[in-house]
Design the sequence.
């Protein structure tokens, strides 16, 4: 296991969600579930984050924000779509300004379904994301060596 | 001795030539050549007398005595003429009082009192000559390009008064040489008055209403100081019985009681010249003048004459508690409060002015303490302050002409717009307040000397004042350090003469910082040993050496290796969607566009001038009045 | 060439410090996070979590907002190590204080060079923090000198050299305990602990994003973390020097005290909300004045 997986710092962005998933995301990081056991830290700065937790669907208004945060994160990075809205657009899918799931804006690595998503599911998703992170870190190292 | 004569007389000849020749190219050539000649002259002087014991030259002449009295009178006449023209009664009255006292002292005492050794050289005057000769003439060279731009900004019809300007600058240098090299105190006084008059003319150069007002403020305060000086001479002649500075000092050391009154008045004169509170306003007012004037007044001349006198008197302060307390407290309070007030300023020249006054306060404090360590510190403060401050003034002046503002807030992105200038300015700023540069090493020595004398009040003043110093310099430095995008480089058309002078200062600064241990061993320590007979506990040599190595590291970090980074360049984080990252423009929550702006902190409600200045003015005035009254009624506490 | 010897010792000590201090500082940071978690009723991360964080940051892609920021951070790190080397080789305490200030200045410049609004606010606040704690730090150095002057058997001359602590009959704390308490107060600022974590907080980092480190990422951020570890070790050294005297086991006492102080700082960190800058400036300066009273008493002893 590489070091990338041992300290997954997360950044959390709320798209057009009903806030149910956001509360669950924060609950995951609070003492009850204590995400810091696995080195998870909530940062407010995309430049410091490894995992991007997005809740809610992507719409015309926020798509550029989601893209900008993703672009400003530094490789290796992983995106987790938290909750069914973030995965597919959920019950908001047919709204006139909703584009769809997060994968309409940026590449998503892990889908964590649920309405709202449960903290246990989220921890599972982060652990899965961490494995992806390790893979990406390894390939980044390989390309750097090759250069 | 010929070299001394050269240093005093040659600038006068140059001034005369500049006054007569009104052709631009010819003037530039004269300034270049005489600047170089004066600098070489001071270097020759330094090479000849470096590290040696003080040398006194037998030189006494009735003619020079009368000439000096005549020059003093001419100064008064010129001042009175201006006072009449601009209807300033107060200046005229002070000038006339001064003339009466001068004539009285000259004809009742001084004419019978011959000073056998009229001129002298010791390590301190060598250092001062180097400062005047190299930095002073560097500033004159800088003025060539600056004044050309300055004239270009003036309306077409304005008369070209540059010949007068340059002539006064050179007369100024001559007078400064006379102050630091004459042993005859009445000659020294004449030179002192000439510097006052010259700065009056230079401050009032633009002839705007503000300039005239500030020039008169300067002349009134310095005439008061001049009267203090001549009163001191009166007591010297009447009570001590000598007008030779060296004799005066040695008599004072053997018999402190007798010199109590003259040194109090001389200290008063030094304090006015060094613009200590409550006289700080003249130096702030002097900022209306063209930048070379400010640089000359602040770094190498004028104010340095004041602290030079105080440092000379330092051994006597050690023996005269009342004068010593006066000088220490006035300097200390000035240092502390002016450092505070500098925080609240956004005009770069005013920040520099407050920092100058604060540093002069520190030098004054050291002189007041009067121990060998304190004098060591004071001399280094003079040296580094002269170099770093002139560098900063020249940089600010050039920046002002190219970005059209002297406000620190407008210096945003100077690092990109004027890459070389900004880095030099950063170097100058760092030299003013941070280890390992010279100023801080000198402050360190000052702290050690205060500790050894158990001067708790001064220790606290130094601690808090240095903290405030960090604040106002660091935020300016930060403003300069910003890097973003590729704005237009506007420094390509800076005059060659300006670059020459700025680079000269920068090289001197790095040299002086790196060579600090050597300068200490060969120039400063000989003076201290000569005056006190021993050195005191100074900063050990290996610490100085670590400091010089750090200087090299910092300079390399500033100038080399930058701009070569393998890392991928990314935009800054603006929380939201950036629209124009270089301008820091982002899309706000209403889909409109907002530009992020960040200004420095000025904390006006804590460190504002209105709140702090009156405290210092009242406190220092009371202190000085008390000290003078005590001296006059004969209470000396010795 | 006696002074070359001194120079070589200082440089060698700085190199050793640059190797050992990160290890110690990393463990201290790990302990901090575990204890903080326990205080909040959590299990908390593994002890080596700070090490994992830094290793991860080093493996990230190298990006930068400009070409100078990295160089400034490296300078800050070098000077912090030099300060540590000077202190732990028994060098001049004032020199150590000045060099660590230089290190802070470089970090401030690194933040300012980015021109990010959040970094700039952080840098401004950091400058204010330096202004707040600087008087007390200088008074600490002076008090050390004055106390050694009273204790050392020389005729009234003290020493700024840290090594002279080992020549004392009694530790300096006996004379300067008010200064010690004052130093603890500003230590909260220097260790970037709540309630004085204005410029760059480890916890609630939403209001100015991450303050001065907002624009630092990957390896640069890792170096900043290591820099903080080194600084923490140095500052705890300052705490310990109060308890050193002429026996070898006084070092153990000094280490014990430093650890207790560190625990108290963690406790404060977890129990106080952040204050406004006005309160920080005024309280730190009042504390420095109290330290000034202490040295005034020493001056008349």
Sequence:
């Amino acid at each position: 296991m590489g070091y990338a997986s041992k300290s997954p710092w997360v950044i959390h962005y709320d798209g057009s969600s009903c806030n149910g998933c956001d509360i669950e995301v924060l609950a995951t990081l609070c003492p009850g579930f204590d995400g810091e056991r696995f080195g998870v830290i909530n940062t407010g700065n995309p430049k410091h984050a490894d995992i991007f937790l997005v809740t809610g669907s992507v719409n015309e208004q926020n798509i550029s924000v989601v893209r900008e945060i993703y672009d400003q994160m530094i490789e290796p990075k992983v995106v987790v779509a938290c909750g069914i809205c973030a995965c597919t657009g959920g019950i908001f899918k047919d709204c006139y300004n909703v584009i769809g799931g997060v994968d309409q804006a940026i590449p998503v690595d892990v889908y964590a379904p649920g309405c709202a998503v449960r903290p246990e599911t989220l921890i599972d998703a982060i652990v899965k994301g961490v494995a992806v992170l390790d893979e990406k870190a390894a390939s980044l190292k390989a390309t750097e060596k090759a250069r | 001795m010929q070299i001394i004569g050269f240093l005093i007389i040659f600038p006068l000849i140059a001034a005369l030539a500049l006054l007569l020749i009104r052709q631009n190219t010819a003037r530039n050539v004269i300034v270049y050549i005489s600047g170089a000649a004066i600098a070489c002259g001071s270097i020759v002087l330094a090479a000849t007398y470096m590290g040696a014991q003080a040398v006194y030259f037998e030189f006494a002449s009735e003619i020079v005595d009368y000439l000096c009295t005549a020059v003093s009178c001419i100064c008064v006449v010129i001042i009175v003429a201006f006072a009449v023209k601009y209807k300033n009664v107060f200046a005229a009255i002070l000038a006339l009082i001064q003339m009466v006292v001068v004539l009285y002292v000259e004809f009742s005492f001084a004419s019978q009192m011959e000073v056998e050794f009229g001129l002298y050289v010791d390590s301190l005057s060598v250092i001062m000559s180097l400062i005047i000769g190299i930095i002073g003439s560097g500033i004159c060279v800088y003025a060539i390009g600056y004044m050309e731009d300055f004239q270009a900004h003036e309306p077409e019809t304005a008369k070209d008064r540059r010949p007068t300007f340059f002539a006064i600058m050179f007369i100024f240098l001559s007078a400064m040489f006379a102050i630091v090299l004459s042993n005859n105190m009445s000659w020294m006084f004449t030179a002192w008055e000439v510097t006052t008059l010259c700065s009056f003319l230079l401050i009032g150069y633009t002839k705007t209403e503000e300039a005239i007002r500030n020039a008169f403020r300067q002349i009134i305060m310095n005439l008061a100081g001049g009267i203090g000086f001549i009163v001191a001479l009166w007591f010297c002649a009447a009570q001590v019985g000598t007008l030779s500075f060296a004799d005066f000092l040695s008599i004072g050391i053997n018999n402190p009681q007798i010199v109590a009154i003259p040194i109090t008045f001389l200290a008063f004169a030094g304090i006015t010249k060094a613009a200590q509170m409550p006289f700080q306003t003249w130096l702030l007012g002097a900022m209306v003048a063209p930048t070379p004037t400010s640089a000359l007044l602040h770094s190498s001349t004028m104010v340095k004459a004041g602290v030079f006198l105080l440092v000379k008197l330092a051994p006597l302060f050690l023996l005269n508690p009342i004068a010593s307390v006066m000088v220490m407290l006035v300097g200390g309070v000035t240092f502390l409060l002016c450092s505070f007030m500098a925080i609240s300023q956004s005009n770069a020249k005013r920040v520099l002015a407050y920092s100058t006054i604060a540093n002069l306060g520190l030098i004054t404090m050291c002189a007041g303490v009067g121990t060998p360590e304190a004098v060591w510190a004071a001399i280094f403060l003079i040296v580094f302050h002269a170099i770093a401050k002139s560098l900063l003034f020249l940089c600010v002046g050039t920046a002002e002409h190219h970005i059209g503002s002297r406000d620190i807030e407008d210096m945003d992105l100077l690092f990109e717009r004027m890459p070389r200038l900004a880095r030099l300015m950063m170097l100058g700023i760092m030299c003013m307040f941070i280890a390992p540069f010279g100023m801080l090493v000198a402050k360190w020595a000052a702290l050690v000397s205060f500790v050894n004398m158990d001067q708790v009040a001064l220790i606290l003043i130094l601690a808090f004042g240095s903290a405030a110093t960090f604040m106002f310099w660091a935020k300016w430095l930060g403003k300069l350090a910003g890097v973003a995008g590729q704005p237009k480089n506007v420094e390509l058309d800076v005059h060659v003469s300006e670059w020459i002078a700025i680079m000269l200062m920068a090289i001197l600064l790095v040299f002086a910082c790196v060579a600090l241990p050597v300068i200490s061993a060969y120039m400063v320590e000989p003076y201290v040993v000569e005056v006190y007979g021993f050195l005191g506990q100074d900063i050990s040599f290996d610490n100085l050496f670590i400091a010089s190595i750090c200087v090299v590291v910092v300079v390399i970090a500033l100038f080399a290796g930058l701009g070569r980074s393998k890392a991928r360049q990314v935009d800054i984080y603006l929380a939201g969607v950036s629209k124009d990252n270089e301008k820091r423009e982002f899309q706000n929550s209403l889909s409109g566009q907002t530009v992020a702006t960040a200004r420095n902190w000025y904390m006006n409600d804590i460190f504002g001038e209105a709140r702090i200045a009156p405290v210092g003015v009242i406190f220092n005035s009371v202190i000085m009045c008390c000290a003078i009254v005590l001296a006059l009624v004969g209470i000396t506490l010795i | 060439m006696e002074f070359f010897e001194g120079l070589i010792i200082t440089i060698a000590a700085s190199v050793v410090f640059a190797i050992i201090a990160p290890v110690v500082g990393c463990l201290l940071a790990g302990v901090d996070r575990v204890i903080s978690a326990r205080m909040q009723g959590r299990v908390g991360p593994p002890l080596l979590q700070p090490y994992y964080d830094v290793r991860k940051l080093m493996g990230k892609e190298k990006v930068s907002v400009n070409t100078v920021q990295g160089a400034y951070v490296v300078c800050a790190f070098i000077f912090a190590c030099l300060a540590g080397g000077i202190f732990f080789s028994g060098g001049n305490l004032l020199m150590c204080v000045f060099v660590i200030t230089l290190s802070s200045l470089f970090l401030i410049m690194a933040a300012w060079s980015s021109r990010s609004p959040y970094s700039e606010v952080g840098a401004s606040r950091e400058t204010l923090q330096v202004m707040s704690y600087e008087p007390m730090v200088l008074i600490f150095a002076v008090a050390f000198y004055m106390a050694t002057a009273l204790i050392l058997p020389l005729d009234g001359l003290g020493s700024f050299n840290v090594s002279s602590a080992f020549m004392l009959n009694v530790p300096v704390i006996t004379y300067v305990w008010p200064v010690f308490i004052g130093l603890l107060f500003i230590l909260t600022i220097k260790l970037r602990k709540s309630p004085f974590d204005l410029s760059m907080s480890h916890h609630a980092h939403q209001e100015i994003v991450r303050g001065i480190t907002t624009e630092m990422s990957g390896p640069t951020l890792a170096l900043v973390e290591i820099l903080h570890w080194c600084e923490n070790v140095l500052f705890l050294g300052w705490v310990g020097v109060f308890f050193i005297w002429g026996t070898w086991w006084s070092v153990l006492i000094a280490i014990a005290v430093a650890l207790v102080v560190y625990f108290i700082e963690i406790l404060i960190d977890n129990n106080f909300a952040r204050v406004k800058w006005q309160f920080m400036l005024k309280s730190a300066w009042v504390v420095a004045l109290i330290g000034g009273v202490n040295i005034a008493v020493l001056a008349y002893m």
Observations:
- Chain C has a mean pLDDT of 89.
- The beta strands of chain C are 63-64.
- The CA atoms of residues 2 and 8 of chain C lie 10 Å apart.
